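dude i think i finally got it to work??
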Amino acid sequence: MEERVAIIGIFIQDINAAAKVNELLHEYADCIIGRIGIPYREKSLNIISVIICAPPDRISALSGKLGRIKGISAKAMQAKTD
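look at this
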């Protein structure tokens, strides 16, 4: 099956939702290449970038599940790999 590399940008506006985000990322750990989290305290915002390599439907599923968590915004950008 075709795999793509994607960046999923996550904004956590409700810190109480962070545990749900981490739980979900743990569920997809087998396809996560790396992640970086940056707290932006002045704006009460936490920002996470997740790099993932997976089939497009799995990337979309993760991004969609993240976006349905209250207090979270998530978007994915995908690139084809050779």
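Helices lie at 18-27, 56-67.
im so relieved honestly
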